[in-house]
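FW: tagging you since you asked about this chain on Friday. Here's the raw sequence from the shared folder, copied in full. Didn't touch anything.
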Amino acid sequence: MGNPADETVTSALQLGCDGVRPPGSALYSLLGRLRSALRSPLHARTVWQLRQQIEHQTSLIRQLETDLVRAEIFERASAAARMGVWQCELPSEQLTWSNGSYDLFGFQRGSEVARSEVLKSYSEESLYRLQRVRSNAIETGSGFALEAEIRPPGVEKRWIRISAAVERRNGEPIRLFGIKQDITEERKALDGMRYLAEHDAMTGLANRTQFQNRLAEVCELGGPGGALMLIDLDGFKRVNDTLGHAVGDECLIEFARRLSVVCQSAELIARIGGDEFAALFGPATDLQRIESIAQRLSTAAQEPMNCSGRVFRVGASIGFAFTEEETPTALFARADHALYAAKAAIGATVFRGSSHQPPD
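HL: got it, structure written out here
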C-alpha cells in the first residue's frame, strides 16, 4: 500500500496536469510548490503543510459555493416576494440593482440603468416627495421610508415601499442603499377598506362619517361662500310599507343616481340616513345657482320610479343654508330647519335656511 501523503500530492498534481483549472490563484501557487517539493526528497512536515493548505483551499471553495447558492436563493426569494435590493453611489448616482428591482420598474435584468430614466416612472406627487426625503437623508445622514406610485413603461400602475439608509465615510455621504418592495395589493386592500369605511354600501355615495368630516373641514376654513343642502324623500315610507323593502332599496339607489347627476358640481354628496341625503357646495356657489339646482332636483325626484316592474312616484323636500363663521352643528341646524320648513309648507319642496344672505 502506498504512502497516503504521496497519494495526496500525486492527486493534486494530477489535477493540475490534466488541464483542469482550479479556482483561485492560490491553488496555482500551491501546485507550483508541490512540483518543487517533488523534485527534492519529501519530508513529513512538508507534506503535512501542503495537505493543510489543500484542505484550507478546499474549505474556501466550499464556502464560496455555499455563498453563491445563498445569493441565488435570495435573488429568487426576493423576486418572488416582489422586492429588490438597490444601491446608489454618491455623487455619481450610479445604480446597482438586484433582479427584483429590475422587475419592479420593468427594466431588463442586468442592463445598465440611469437614475434619470428611473425617475420618469414616478408619478409627479411621488417624485416630489422622493426628492425631498432623499435630499434630507443625504444632508442629515438619516435613512427614510417612503411609499410611492410608479408607472413603468408597458407595466400597470403600482405602488412600492422604499426603505433607504445612508453610508458615510469621514462624515461625507458615499452611497444610499436599501430595499424596494411592491405593495400594490396591500394598497388596494387598504383603499378597499377605506372605501367601505367612508361610503354607503347601498348607494355608493359618501356615508355620514365622511360627510361629517368634510363638513368640519369646510367650517374650519371659516368665512362665507359655500352651501349645505339637505334632501329628504317624501313618500318613501309608503313605498317600503306597500311595495316592500327590496323595492324601497331600488328606489334609494335610483334617487342617488339622479341626485349625483343634478348635483355633479357639489364637492361631496352623501347619504346621511335612511332616506336623507346631503350635498356640500364650494365657495363659488351663489343663491341663484343653489336655487336652480334645488328646483331641478325636486323635478328629478318627482319623475316616475320603475323598480322591479312597479311604477310609482316620490317627491323630495329640500333645505339649504350658506356657510358662515360657525360650527358644523350650527350650519347643519340651519339647513335642517330649512328642510323641515319645506316639509311643513303646503306645496313647497325647496326652502332656504335662515335670513343670512350669501356673499355678493
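FW: The CA atoms of residues 123 and 141 lie 26 Å apart.
HL: agreed, and The longest helix spans residues 44-80.
FW: great, closing this out.
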